[in-house]
């Protein structure tokens, strides 16, 4: 799958809801009920970060939940891409992009959303065929004002900003014409996961799913 086809597939996923929950899962047993709560709340596209020993098992469990579209986040290497694909991830998300990671995702038909934080990084990825990009770290790298400045000179680029985004700041990103969705960890914070408050997480998901987006 070429980078252009990868971005086409990811754009379709990103259009399913305005927010992609970014999930850090410590207990594999939490994965399926968490996915069901998020899908019930209207957020079917989920990113499980490869930051815990439970991440791959969580991806495998979530991939079996009806309506859930599961991706792996914090994918940093060809090894990570291979493990994520084997676990059942439908896509990969990275904070940046390296030739090795790009090549591995192309070879494995694993759609990659590569990260970019500067105009030069965006231009480099556009040259390779990537048009659906992660803007990371969003808040630290300039937030909505910076992304807005990229819209006119780089009109082909579409973004999923992630990093430091909250329920309060998400609308400012979603109002931009070059933002398709945002990624955020506020939907399933550690305290709600620890309490196994699936109803509370579903309610947060419903509120996030109701956010409007200006793009596409």
What is the residue-mean pLDDT, rounded to a whole number?
97
CATH topology: TIM Barrel
The topology string of helices and strands comes to: HEHEHEHEHEEHEHEHEHH
Instruction: Give the C-level CATH assignment.
Output: Alpha Beta
Give the second-level CATH assignment, the architecture.
Answer: Alpha-Beta Barrel
- State Rg: 16 Å
Low-confidence stretches: none
Q: Strand pairing plus helix content: what structural class? A: alpha/beta
Report the CATH superfamily.
Aldolase class I
Strand % is 15-25%
Q: How many structurally independent domains?
A: 1
Strand elements, count = 9
SS field, number of helical segments: 10
Reconstruct the topology from this structure.
Layout: H1 3-14, E1 19-23, H2 31-40, E2 45-49, H3 55-62, E3 69-73, H4 78-87, E4 91-93, H5 99-107, E5 112-113, E6 115-116, H6 119-128, E7 132-135, H7 143-151, E8 158-161, H8 170-174, E9 182-184, H9 190-194, H10 198-209
Parallel strand pairs: 1-2, 1-9, 2-3, 3-4, 4-5, 6-7, 7-8
Helix pairs in contact: 2-3, 2-10, 4-5
List its salient traits:
216 residues, 15% strand, TIM Barrel, alpha/beta
Summarize the structure.
This protein has 216 residues and is α/β, with parallel strands linked by helices. The chain contains 10 helices and 9 strands.
Would you write up a description of this structure?
The protein is of the alpha/beta class. It has one domain (3-209): Aldolase class I (TIM Barrel), CATH 3.20.20.70. The protein contains ten helices and nine strands. It has helices at 3-14, 31-40, 55-62, 78-87, 99-107, 119-128, 143-151, 170-174, 190-194, 198-209; strands at 19-23, 45-49, 69-73, 91-93, 112-113, 115-116, 132-135, 158-161, 182-184. The strands form two sheets. It has a six-stranded parallel β-sheet with strand order 5-4-3-2-1-9, sandwiched between helices. Strands 6-7-8 form a three-stranded parallel β-sheet. α6 (119-128) links the parallel β6 (115-116) and β7. α2 crosses α3, α2 (31-40) packs parallel to α10 (198-209) and α4 (78-87) packs parallel to α5 (99-107). It is globular, with a radius of gyration of 16 Å.
